[in-house]
Specification:
Layout: E1 8-11, H1 20-29, E2 34-37, H2 51-54, H3 57-66, E3 72-76, H4 89-108, E4 113-117, H5 124-144, E5 148-152, H6 156-162, E6 167-172, H7 173-177, H8 184-198, E7 202-207, E8 209-213, E9 216-221, H9 231-240, E10 247-249, H10 257-273
Parallel strand pairs: 1-2, 1-10, 2-3, 3-4, 4-5, 5-6, 6-7, 7-10
Antiparallel strand pairs: 8-9
Helix pairs in contact: 5-6, 8-9
The chain binds zinc ion.
């Protein structure tokens, strides 16, 4: 089992203003052994919009070799402008096409885990059905390529129906917190219960601070502004349950690279302190 130090990483989503290769270099220079690649946009050359056009076979090879020093590499789809549960079949197909492409991308750059955003059909039953449909396809692809895939959502029953060890949940701790009461004790307790309930199918965590602002809960905060979550209790639970997957930091989106790195180093130190 990899030590926790090798499994705490940074998402490149936090640094959209610099080329993704530069973001990888900065995360590496800061001593992180884990990284989440979010290949959405290359923003500086704004004529290059979509990652599929940007990541040619050569670029993928280069990225794979850049990532060699990392112990843990994951890929995450975010804000791709598609809905995997769209009730219009043409739109749903467009999402399937992009999600398949992101899984191929994950294989090409040598990632171990790839997780995708969940969709919404506007109806719980239909949403579950479309997630199940695509999840089964994705699980088969993942199994063939020695990959683990998953959705970022909180529907363990759908994962149970997909029924594959190659498909699970990316549990976003900050987003779980936002669904709990705005008090540190109650919020942490609620999140712990959800984690415990979903643990058997969790393949990755997204980690960020949450700030309680009256009745609202503001996510993606650095740890020094986190007032909603007691991460010492969360880490204790992960250790007790023998969680072996990654914890990817999604702090301050977007921000200057120096800020992201400083905040993520702070969060990593804090998490390791609870060991
Ligand atoms: Zn997330």
């Amino acid at each position: 089992m990899k030590p926790l130090d090798d499994r705490i990483g940074v998402s490149t989503l936090c640094m959209p203003r610099i080329p993704i290769e530069e973001a990888v270099g900065r995360i590496q220079d800061a001593g992180f052994k884990a990284i989440e690649i979010v290949p959405v946009k290359v923003q500086r050359d704004s004529n290059i919009d979509y990652w599929m056009e940007y990541f040619t076979p050569t670029k993928r090879k280069e990225m794979k070799s850049l990532l060699k020093t990392f112990e843990t590499v994951t890929v995450h789809s975010s804000s791709l402008g598609v809905n995997i549960c769209h009730t219009d079949s043409v739109e749903r197909q467009r999402a399937i096409y992009q999600y398949n492409a992101i899984m191929e991308f994950a294989v090409d750059i040598g990632a171990q885990i790839v997780t995708m955003h969940s969709g919404n059909a506007g109806d719980r039953h239909l949403t579950d059905k479309y997630h199940l449909d695509y999840g089964q396809t994705a699980a088969e692809y993942a199994a063939r390529h020695n990959l683990t895939a998953g959705y970022e959502f909180f529907r363990p029953n759908v994962i149970a129906q997909i029924g594959s060890p190659h498909f699970g949940i990316n549990f976003d701790i900050g987003h779980a917190a936002q669904r709990m009461p705005p008090s540190r004790e109650k919020c942490t307790q609620g999140v712990l219960e959800w984690i415990e309930q979903m643990m058997p199918v969790i393949v990755e965590f997204h980690v960020h601070g949450v700030f309680i602002d009256g009745e609202s809960m503001i996510d993606h905060q650095p740890f020094h502004r986190n007032t909603a979550l007691d991460y010492s209790r969360i880490i204790s639970l992960l250790i007790e349950k023998n969680y072996q997957g990654p914890l990817m930091l999604e702090i301050e989106i977007p921000s200057e690279p120096e800020t992201t790195i400083a905040y993520c180093k702070e969060a990593k130190m804090e998490l390791l302190r609870f060991l």
